[in-house]
Specification:
Two copies of one chain form a homodimer. By secondary structure, chain A is α+β, with helices and mostly antiparallel strands. The first copy, chain A, is about 35% helix and about 25% strand. In chain A, the strands form two sheets. In chain A, strands 7-9-6-10-8-11-12 form a seven-stranded mixed sheet. Chain A has a five-stranded mixed sheet with strand order 1-2-5-3-4.
């Protein structure tokens, strides 16, 4: 943990979050018990210039605002029940395209728009968009904190595609489309999240980089974690583009924007998890093991590997 | 309704809000039924330079972010159960003072901080803060749309104090403190809202100007409304400062930032409402009458008065 004014500020906000539903602000979402189930609430913001660029297609920004919030719900095993949009008015054409894309996202996720706020006044190039997603969990709501020594670390889907897609876009490339699509239009793993919730000990989504998010889960759970770089799942498109060197694997594991589910499960659950993966048509890969102690270690084909200087995007969010 | 790109945009967002809980985005808050009661959700944003100034005390900005969201809950008769903060990092000292003031507001309202998001990257002078407040209503959740011909229009407290406070601040004045306090630290009428919810036909808060908000209630309810300027409640401090001319009364009725409750009630409820006002120690004043038809009319001591060109802050929110 870096001692910075930002870290101090976040620590002082955590000190205010004394309600058990806040989970110490250490989790992806807040949880409020109701007689209808557990209500899961998350609020993610996107800032122009940081989370999206002025030249990004507005429809993609809208999709991303919805998807990143729903990914937090997926990580808590919650089914989305509504969305509030905090929208900062700007260029009329941009706004129109945003709303069109927002409509596509709402329909795509069958997500009711319940309310929000529309404000004007932000200077050009400084839009801040806010989304609040509300979900309902009928069963267990896994936290980040539940991993135990001996548990395995798993991840859904493939890692690094979105990072490769972003790098391609920055180079002005438009192919491979599958990688660019994974950056532009992430798919929150909602069904997998719901089905996994009562099978896992801890769960979160991978948004800031696999290594960083895995280190956060280990820290929150009070465990050490060894992550096997050679087990990190990579897509065929990614492998064709980047090859399979250790350097490239480290790149994938720190790139972020994956919006896959990262979870800790008892070794006893392995066959059940693989069956579920088969049923859902979504790969689930075992990529590490928790142990007593603290800290993240990396290995590659059983050989220890030094941690890269940046595990992910520490201060982006 | 002005035909502007903003109005078009808001209309296209409304077209997306088909869920009944969204109330067509015409209400102050969204309503979701749960077995524990009706969950009321609202999201209000504050933009630097529009809703607050860079030189405003950060603690006041924090209070206002909480208070404006809770005022929406009050207008729906909901008791606050939690808050999500969307915070845009900037100057470290400003951030520290904001969080200190935010803590004061949370404690003042006994409001649990449940979660949120902290982002960096907004340019200097362009912070956007987002608040999401969650409330629970055990009984009726009044909408804006329920006023019927023959109903009376009522308002709590006094109107214009906050507007006078803001004008004083702009002149560099620090007194009368009561008026400045009403601008800097609005008090959402939470208890009154809960007690009024099942006694009223329609309710909303007064945030953008009494005349504008009253016109909105009339329009949403499909009624005409005559508002009696001479019945608009003014505080002693306001009257001492401004006197009692028609011009000044119009000023009070269009100034905004009042965060009082505006409601429609059957004429039969009048004595009950006055008893409740007595019990709560909060004045409730009858200021108008709904009728069949459409549009807002003004009178002053039974004499018709032309509507001012601006009824309030149309595009601020």
């Amino acid at each position: 943990v870096t001692a910075s004014p930002e870290a101090d500020l976040i620590a002082s906000l955590r000190a205010l979050a004394t309600h058990e539903g806040a989970r110490g602000l250490l989790d992806d979402a807040a949880v409020l018990a109701t007689d209808s189930g557990q209500l899961v609430l998350t609020c993610d913001m996107l800032v122009e210039g940081t989370h999206f660029l002025s030249e990004d297609p507005p429809a993609d920004v809208a999709w991303k605002l919805v998807a990143v919030n729903l990914s937090d719900l997926a990580a808590k095993g919650a089914r989305p029940v509504g969305f509030l949009l905090g929208f900062s008015l700007g260029d009329a054409e941009w706004d129109r395209e945003f709303v069109a894309g927002f409509g596509v996202a709402l329909r795509g996720f069958e997500l009711p728009l319940l309310g929000g706020d529309t404000v004007s006044g932000a200077p050009v190039g400084a839009r801040t968009l806010a989304g609040t997603a509300i979900g309902l969990a009928r069963g267990t709501v896994p936290a980040r904190t539940g991993a135990r020594p001996g548990d395995h670390l798993w991840v859904t889907g493939a890692i690094g595609d979105a990072g490769a897609g972003l790098a391609l876009l920055r180079q002005g490339a438009v192919e491979p489309a599958s990688l660019i699509e994974r950056y532009r239009a992430p798919r929150p793993r909602l069904e997998a999240g719901e089905r996994l919730a009562d099978r896992v000990e801890a769960m979160m989504d991978v948004s800031d980089g696999l290594l960083l998010d895995a280190a956060r889960m280990a820290q929150a759970s009070g465990c050490a974690l060894t992550l096997d770089l050679d087990s990190v799942p990579l897509s065929e498109a990614w492998l064709r583009l980047r090859g399979d060197s250790r350097t490239q694997r480290l790149e994938a594991a720190t790139a972020g924007d994956d919006y896959e589910l990262l979870f800790a499960a008892s070794p006893d659950s392995a066959s059940d998890l693989l069956e579920l993966a088969e049923e859902l048509g979504l790969p689930m890969s075992r990529i590490g093991t928790f142990a007593t102690g603290a800290g993240l270690s990396l290995s590659d084909r059983s050989e220890p590997v030094a941690l890269p200087p940046n595990l992910g995007f520490e201060h982006r969010r």
